[in-house]
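Lecture notes, part 5. Sequence design as translation. It can be helpful to think of inverse folding as translation between two languages: the language of shapes and the language of residues. The source text, in structure tokens, appears below.
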């Protein structure tokens, strides 16, 4: 009668159980995934700015003038510009994921084009929003 072998805890070949950054090279889609998460987090901060602006508006002219002064400063413009880019970049990433939900854009060239395109589109749309916004003010 053959004796049963006890299971070994080590696999026959030594390799990581889960992929990690030492194996993968950094790709555009990896960077865009990280940026999508980062811009999502930044949108929380931007939403707090909107809440501060609305509370100041409801509080009265003095509080509103202070917030408007800060938002009209170079630092305020820089923060608002970054918020605009984060909003549009997150939206572009969401549209990319929406396409993937329909099973489109999974080929390597398509994924690269979508990743680069979302970055270019978010930058171009941010500039367009600011040029139009500043020309109307």
């Amino acid at each position: 009668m053959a004796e049963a072998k006890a299971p070994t805890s080590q696999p026959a070949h030594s390799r990581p159980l889960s992929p990690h950054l030492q194996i993968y090279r950094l790709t555009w889609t990896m960077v865009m995934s990280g940026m999508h998460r980062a811009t999502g987090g930044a949108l929380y901060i931007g939403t707090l700015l909107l809440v501060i602006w609305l509370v100041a508006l409801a509080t009265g002219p003095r509080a509103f003038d202070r917030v408007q002064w800060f938002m009209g400063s170079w630092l305020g413009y820089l923060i608002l510009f970054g918020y605009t880019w984060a909003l549009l970049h997150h939206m572009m990433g969401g549209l990319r994921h929406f396409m993937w939900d329909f099973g489109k854009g999974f080929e390597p060239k398509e994924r690269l084009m979508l990743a680069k395109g979302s970055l270019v589109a978010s930058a171009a749309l941010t500039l367009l929003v600011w040029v139009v916004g500043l020309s109307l003010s």
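The translated text above is only one of many valid answers, since several sequences can fold into similar shapes. The CA atoms of residues 11 and 17 lie 10 Å apart.
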